[in-house]
Amino acid sequence: MKLIHIIAGLALATAPLAAQVPVYLDETKPIEDRVEDALSRMTLEEKIAVIHAQSKFSSRGVPRLGIPEIWTTDGPHGIRAEVLWDEWDQAGWTNDSCVAFPALTCLAATWNEDMSLLYGKSIGEEARYRNKAMLLGPGVNIYRTPLNGRNFEYMGEDPYLAATMVVPYVKGVQSNGVAACVKHFALNNHEVNRYNTNVIVDDRTLYEIYLPAFKAAVQEGGAWAIMGSYNLYKNQACCHNEYLLNDILRGEWGYDGVVVSDWGGTHDTDEAIHNGLDMEFGSWTNGLSEGASNAYDSYYLALPYLNKIRSGEVGTEELDAKVRNVLRLAFRTVMNRNRPLGSLCSDAHYAAARQIAGEGIVLLKNDADLLPMEVKKGSTILVVGENAVKMMTVGGGSSSLKVQREISPLEGIRERFGDIAEVVYERGYVGDTGGEYNGVTTGQDLSESRSAGQLIADAVARAREADYVIFIGGLNKSNQQDCEGADRTQLGLPYGQDQVIEALAEANENLIVVNISGNAVAMPWVEEVPAIVQAWYIGSEAGHAIADVLSGDVNPSGKLPFTFPARLEDVPAHIMGEYTGIASADTVDIEYKDGIYVGYRWTDLQKKTKPLFAFGHGLSYTSFEYGKPVIDKDEMNMDGSVTVRVSVTNTGDREGKEIVQMYVGDRKASVERPVKELKGFKKVSLAPGETTEVSFTVDKEDLSYFDADRHEWVAEPGMFDIYVAAAADDVRGKVSFELK
Ligand code: GLC
Questions:
Q1: 88 CB near ligand 1 (under 6 Å)
Q2: How much distance in Å is there from the Cα of 652 to the middle of ligand 1?
Q3: What is the rounded CA–CA span in Å between residue 475 and residue 489?
Q4: How far are the Cα atoms of 76, 90, 134, 434 from residue 439, in angstroms, in the given order?
Q5: Alpha carbons 452 and 88: distance in angstroms, whole number
Q6: How far does the signal peptide extend, from start to end residue (predicted)?
C-alpha cells in the first residue's frame, strides 16, 4: 500500500474526530464565534452561575463544558495571600508570598511609561503564576483631597498623567493572559461614606477630570475588566449605573470587557440586570472584613434573577449579554492555552520593584547639596523614626500583602553604609504598634516603654554626635493613615513627628527627612530641614531603593503626581466645603463644587496661596537647562496640530533623567478654562553636558475642552500658549500659536 493511501486513510479515520472539536474549543476560530458557540451550549442555570461569585474571590466556570472558574485577586501592588473559600481569613498557605511592588503613586511619580509596562508585566507574571484570571487593579481615581485613604493606590491629580501611565500597566498585565480590572469606576475620591456618597458633578468636570484615565485604560489599554465603585452617581450605585456603564462605558467608549462589582457594591437585582453589571462579587460584605456566609445563591444576580426569568418577568437578552462578556473574559484568559506561564518572586521582579521605586522617589529639597550623602570612614549615621523599621507592605486595606521579603529602610541603609560607618537607630516616636493587617501578621514587636519626651531626648542626644541624621517617618497605612475604608483627619503628620523633626533639626544641620506616605503631608519644619525625600510606599525593595537614592547610586528622577498644599485650607475640595469627612448612615450628597479646578489647575487660577511643592516638582543630583521652545510653523498640519521642540541640556557633572512637561493654555475661550493643562511629557536621560531635543505634537484634542451642552470636545479658534516646564510652578519657556 502506497504511503499516499496510508495518509489518506489516516485523514479519513481522524476526520470525524476533527469535526467533533466544538467551535468553542477550537483555537483557530475567532473568539466571538467561540463565545457564541459556548453560549449556545449553556443551560439557563449555567448562565446564571457564571455571573456571580461562588466564593470570596472566584466565580463558577462551566464544569460540564470544561470552561474553568474565574479567580480574581487583589491588588494593584502585588498578589494577595489566599483567603478561605468563603471568609476574609487567611487560608494559611505557605506558597503564596509575593513581591510587593511600589504603590501606584510611586509608579505615577516615575512619569515613565516604560516603568509602567515593566510593572504591569511583572505583577501580571505573579498573578499568572498564582493562576489568577483577573488582577483587581490598577486604581486610577483622581487625587482630589489629600485626606483620601486610598490615594496611595492611585496615580495622582492629573487626568493626562494618570491616563498615560495606566495604559502600559494594563497592557503589561494582560500580556500574561490575566485581565487587569481598572477601578473604581467612578468618582470614588474619598473613603469616608464610601458606600453611601452620592457624587454630584457637572458633565464637563466628569469628562475632563474623572473619566480620562478610565477611558484611556479601555480604549488604549484594551482593559478586559472594569470594577464599579461603591459610591453613587446620579443616585444610582456605580456598580449598576446606567449612565456610567451603559451610556458611557459601552455606548461611547465601545467597551467589550466585563464589569465587576466592588465587593458589596451590588444592591438591586433590576438595576443589576439592566444597568451593565456582568459579575457580582462580595455582596453583603464591607469589602474588608464582614460577610454573610455562603450567600451566593441569594446574590442579586443569582436566584432572584433566575426566578424573574422563570416567572417571565424578564427575558434572557440581558443575561446572554452578560454571559458573552464573561465568556470573552474566559477566552482571553483561562481558555487561552497559549498564554505565558508567569513567574513568582523572581530576581527580575525584585529588580523591577527596585528600579521602579528608584525612578519614583522624589527629591523635594536638597539645600547645600546635602544629598547624595558623602559618608566618611568611621563616621556615624543616625537613623530615627518608626517608618525606618516598620513593615509597610501590610496595611492599607485590600491591597495589603504577604511578602516573601521586605527590606526596611534601616536594613537598606545599614547594608549600603554599614561597612564604613556606624549606623545607629533611635525610635523617635511611636506610631502604630499593631501587628496584624487583613489577617497578615507582621511578627514585628514595635512595643515601646519610653515616653514621647524620652524618645525625643534619646534621639536628640544621639543626633548631636552623628555626622548624618536621617529621619524616616510619614504615614503608615494603618487606620486613617492612608488606609481603605477611612480618610485622614488632618494634613499634618501624626504621632508628634513634627516635634521630633524640629528637635533633630536643632541638634544637627545634616538632617535628611524621608517621608513615606501616599498623600501630601504638611511640613511646618520645611525651612529648618535641608534635605527632604518623598519615598512613597515602595514595597519589598524599599530599603534598597531608599539607600540607592541617599547614596547617589541612583540619581533621583521622580516628580510629584499631585500638589503638596501648604495647608488643607488651600485645597479647593476643602475650600468649597463639600468634603465633609463626617460619617453618615444615610446617603450623603457630595457636590464637587471645585469642578475642573483640581490640584495645580486651582493653584494657577488663584494667586494668593502657593503650594508647599508643586505638581510635577522633583529635583535631581544634576541640573538641566532648557532651550527656548520653538514651533515649526511651517509644519502646522491641516488639522491644526503643531509640533513644539525644545532642547534640554544636562549642565551638571553626573548622568540624570529629566521629565520635560508640556502644558497647553487657551488664552481666550467662551468658557472658563485653567491657565494651563498637562498635555505631554517626556523623560529623557542625559550624560553630563549632553543635549537632546524633545518634541511634542499638540493636536486639536489637546486644545479642546468638553462642551457639556453639545456633549462633545471643542477646540475654539484663537491664540493658545504652549508651556514647556520642569514643574507646574517652574515654566522654562512658552510659545504661542493661533488655531485657525
Ligand atoms: C475592596 C476594595 C476593592 C477590592 C475588593 C476586594 O472593598 O474596594 O478595591 O479589590 O474589595 O478586596
A1: no
A2: 46
A3: 12
A4: 18, 6, 22, 12
A5: 36
A6: 1-18
Question: Which amino acid does the sequence have at 37?
Answer: D
Q: Which among 702, 610, 716, 738 is positioned nearest to 672, based on CA atoms? A: 716
What distance in Å separates the CA atoms of residue 537 and residue 101, rounded to the nearest whole number?
9
Phi-psi region of 69 (alpha: psi -120 to 50; beta: other; left: phi over 0): beta
- Cα separation, 731 vs 34, whole angstroms: 54
d(CA 361, CA 200): 35
Cα–Cα dist 717/738, whole Å: 7
What percent of the residues of the chain are helix, what percent strand, and what percent coil, each to the nearest 5?
30, 20, 45
- Contacts of residue 504, defined as CB under 8 A and 6 or more positions apart, other chains included, come to 384, 428, 459, 460, 463, 469, 471, 511
* Residue 231 CB–ligand 1 contact under 6 Å: no
Sign of CA dihedral 723, 143, 437, 581: positive
**What is the 264 CA–ligand 1 centroid distance (Å)?**
9
Residue among 360, 432, 356, 440 nearest 404 (CA):
440
Set of cell numbers at residue 466: 552623628
Total count of residues recorded for the chain:
740
Q: 372: cis peptide before it, omega within 30°? A: yes
Closest CA to 317 of 269, 264, 274: 274
Residue 280: predicted pLDDT = 98
Range with the lowest mean pLDDT among 454-468, 488-502, 565-579?
A: 565-579
Ligand 1 mean position, distance from CA 99 (Å): 19
CA 97 → CA 84, 406, 445, 563, distances in Å?
A: 16, 11, 21, 35
Beta pairing, strands 70-73 & 436-437: unpaired
| Closest C-alpha among 425, 426, 423 to residue 375 | 423
Q: Is any ligand 1 atom within 6 A of the Cβ of residue 411?
A: no
Q: Give pLDDT tens digits for 148-187.
A: 999 999 999 999 999 999 999 999 999 999 999 999 999 9
CA dist 107 and 113 (Å) reads 9
The Cα–Cα gap between 254 and 215 comes to: 10
Q: Which residue numbers are catalytic?
A: 262
Q: Fill in the amino acid letter for 505.
A: A
Whether 15 shows a pLDDT value over 60: the answer reads no
Residue with cell 456582568: 278
Give the model confidence (pLDDT) of 268-283 as tens digits.
Answer: 999 999 999 999 999 9
732 C-beta neighbours (distance < 10 Å), count:
19
Radius of gyration of the chain (CA): 27
Can you say how many angstroms the Cα of residue 96 is from the centroid of all Cα atoms in its chain? 22
Cα angle 113-139-241, degrees, rounded to a multiple of 5: 130
Q: Does 287 contact ligand 1 (Cβ within 6 A)? A: yes
Q: How far apart are CA 589 and CA 582, in angstroms?
A: 12
| Residue 707 Rama label (left phi>0; alpha psi -120 to 50; beta) | beta
Could you read off the pLDDT of 539-594 as tens digits, one per residue? Answer: 999 999 999 999 999 999 999 999 999 999 999 999 986 777 888 999 999 999 99
How far apart CA 537 and CA 515 sit, in angstroms, is 10
Residue type at 625 in one-letter notation: E
Per-residue HEC secondary structure of 34-71 comes to HHHHHHHHCCHHHHHHCCEECCCCEECCEHHHCECCEE
Inter-residue contact 260 to 181 (CB < 8 Å): yes
The three three-digit cell numbers of residue 401, written as one number: 500583602
Strands 179-185 and 225-228: parallel
Between the CA of residue 409 and those of 236, 383, 461, what are the distances in Å? 45, 9, 22
